[in-house]
């Protein structure tokens, strides 16, 4: 699972009863010879970087549960990482600044200094004042520009969070209101602190990943073969991620004739990974459906055991996540119904905002 990436442009948002915020949540789906697969990616932008975490449908048993975990990651990240404030942006010294004072610059024509200027941008308008060097002299013009910039801040610089979504704005006001109380800009979290908080969040929620066992069988025709084949994939997550794949040709034998061989391969793989008890649990639940499967529909089955992870945030995050509630995790993941998704284009978070 990646922790930093650029968010995709297209998303599919799940249908659900009541309002569902799509902010920072993206749907990705793909089709391959082994069948369709999907995932939800949660993203939060801070300090010019977009942090992301992906939750696969297969891993969590359904699109609905993967979406619930992605939303939990997003909501926790919004509480851990304060967005940039407008005051901070207005007083940030840019790399191109040559005056040493934010919002103060020298206006040049053909390389010759003509004036010192004060500039302030607010959500409502852009304020600018210029002081010609010919009139005031270079030193005095610069002093006047600095004083004008400070006056602009005091008169027009109402502070607020630099966010692009109402939910992110409300979260910021609820958990970081103290950053707006000071008349001076508060220093932003440095990159190392942001990385440490995201790492701790990923580690905590990673412990809640289910010990999940998934088997898929599809029929397809390899590009370099004249016959079709059964493609069997066994995947296991939780503790150690593993996968095993085997093809069973249908050139001289039919789909029903290949089922016992494929079932023995699945038995051997699961037993080697997890022991006979886990295999018996999977076989009890899925053997009848597997043997009754057909060439057109194939087979999908998964077996879930509860993760050992703690639902309480780690000590380093607890003050910031006090009262944070994780989604209810079912005892039987396979019993959670999948939800249908419709296509919808959404916008992601600005890396400099929320």
Count of DSSP strands:
12
N- to C-terminal distance: 22 Å
Report the sheet with the most strands, covering strand number, pairing sense and barrel closure.
4 strands, antiparallel
Helix amount: 25-40%
Give the SSE order as H and E letters: EEEEHHHEEEHHHHHEEEHHEE
Number of separate structural domains: 3
Shape: elongated
Strand order of the largest sheet: 10-9-8-11
Question: Strand share of the residues?
Answer: 25-35%
Structural class: alpha+beta
Low-confidence stretches: 1-20, 332-353
Q: Number of helical runs?
A: 10
Radius of gyration: 28 Å
* Average pLDDT: 79
Describe the protein.
The chain is of the alpha+beta class and 354 residues long. It folds into 3 domains: 10-84 and 186-209 and 308-345, no CATH class; 86-158, no CATH class; 211-305, no CATH class. 33% of the residues lie in helices and 27% in strands. It contains 10 helices and 12 strands. It has helices spanning 57-60, 63-80, 86-90, 133-136, 138-156, 166-176, 178-181, 191-206, 255-274, 276-291; strands spanning 10-14, 25-32, 35-46, 49-56, 104-109, 112-121, 126-132, 211-220, 229-237, 242-249, 299-305, 341-345. The strands form 4 sheets. The protein has a 4-stranded antiparallel beta sheet with strand order 10-9-8-11.
Q: What is this entry, summarized?
A:
With 354 residues, the chain is an alpha+beta fold. Helix content is 33%, strand content 27%.
Reconstruct the topology from this structure.
Elements: E1 10-14, E2 25-32, E3 35-46, E4 49-56, H1 57-60, H2 63-80, H3 86-90, E5 104-109, E6 112-121, E7 126-132, H4 133-136, H5 138-156, H6 166-176, H7 178-181, H8 191-206, E8 211-220, E9 229-237, E10 242-249, H9 255-274, H10 276-291, E11 299-305, E12 341-345
Antiparallel strand pairs: 1-12, 2-3, 3-4, 5-6, 6-7, 8-9, 8-11, 9-10
Helix pairs in contact: 2-8, 9-10
